[in-house]
Amino acid sequence: MNGFSKIVSAAGLAVGLAMAAAPAMAQQKQEPVAAAPTSSSPAAIAAATEILKMKNTAAMYAGAVPGIIEKTKTGLLQQYLNYQKDLNEVAVIIAKNNAGRESEISEGMAKVYAGQFTEQELKDLVTFYKSPLGQKLLTSEPKAITASLGFLQTWAAQFGETVAGQFKVEMKKRGKDI
What we know:
By secondary structure, this protein is mainly α. It has helices at residues 3-30, 42-54, 58-61, 64-79, 84-97, 102-116, 119-130, 132-173. Mean pLDDT is 85; it is low at 1-30.
């Protein structure tokens, strides 16, 4: 694939992903989501927490605290290059002082889920995820998502080549070779 085809392919993928996300983003703008509702019952929050554990959502944000510390340190290093040794040492101290703060994410996500579903719905979801089909969903869905993303990348590359070919044909009709 030549350089132009790669660019068109990448642009096509980016546009496709952006357009696919647009309805969801528009819906989010129409329906503001509270950061972490607090009006849910303790039982609803407990059920939401159980669902999130079953779905292993902690894996999504396991590196959040170290990542934010590293990102902050990197930003400071750009401003204070002479303090590299000190900033590296301070980052270790800050990481130790903030170990376990990921639990705040978990608690906040449980409150968000509890704010989106009724207590009974959450209990029904727990029951579902404990069922054989629910267990299969928990193990198969990540694989299906990964495979779907792989398919999307392959499709976008092939479609990008098709579109690049069409551009070449149309430009040639105008007397311009690209």
